[in-house]
Amino acid sequence: MAAVQVALKFLQPPETTSSGGIYVNSFSYFPRKRPMSASFAVSSLESTSTEAVEPEIELEFLGPNSRSDGPYTVERAKARSGEKLLRNIMLDNKIELYATYGKVMNCGGGGSCGTCIVEILDGKDLLNERTSTELRYLRKKPESWRLACQTIVGNKENSGKVVVQRLPQWKK
């Protein structure tokens, strides 16, 4: 019976003073209605056959010096189009990017040292345009030279092959 009285107490309007104000100690309970929601997942066997293939860029990195028998050393890597800087792809795949000085004194990809110079031999159209940082550091260098820390590989839509010469300033 006490539970019923308590429940009725909550349903009564709050007590008021003679001046029309509400007592501070009165307590009212108004339960909130929460909206119900449901989500459904539909799977189909047909959806697996029509998955979109993400564009991928193949990269070939030529070494700075040719071997005694003539050809350059070649290292290969792949990357999703438009997701990474050339510098990060090279470092992730353990491909040598810096000369001796650059290994110690590089800026960590901030574009403020110019030690990550590469030459794009093929696939220039698969890279972003030169940035203002590159224009400043590579002012007197060939158009094919880029800073790896400023070069985005792909644009999320294209795919193809890029050939990169590492340390072009050492090329014989």
Summarize the structure.
Keywords: 2Fe-2S, Iron, Iron-sulfur, Metal-binding. 17% of the residues lie in helices and 21% in strands.
Name of the top-level CATH class of the domain at 56-170 = Alpha Beta
| The CATH fourth-level homologous superfamily of the domain at 56-170 | Beta-grasp domain
Kindly estimate the percentage of residues that lie in beta strands according to DSSP.
15-25%
Biggest sheet, open or closed, and with what strands and sense? 5 strands, mixed
Oligomer: single chain
Examine the secondary-structure arrangement and name the CATH architecture of the domain at 56-170: Roll
CATH level 3 topology of the domain at 56-170: Ubiquitin-like (UB roll)
Mean pLDDT rating:
79
CA radius of gyration: 33 Å
Helix count equals 4
Could you spell the SSE succession in H and E letters?
HEEHHEHEE
**What is the percent of helical residues?**
10-25%
What best-fitting shape do the alpha-carbon axes yield? Answer: globular
Question: SSE layout and pairings?
Answer:
Layout: H1 2-11, E1 56-66, E2 72-80, H2 86-92, H3 100-105, E3 117-122, H4 132-137, E4 145-147, E5 160-166
Parallel strand pairs: 1-5
Antiparallel strand pairs: 1-2, 3-4, 3-5
Provide an overview of this structure.
This protein has a domain at 56-170: Ubiquitin-like (UB roll), CATH 3.10.20.30. Strand 1 and strand 2 (72-80) form a beta hairpin. The radius of gyration is 33 Å and the shape is globular. The protein contains 4 helices and 5 strands; from the N terminus they run αββααβαββ. The chain has 172 residues and is an alpha+beta fold. The chain starts with a helix and ends in a 6-residue tail after the last strand.
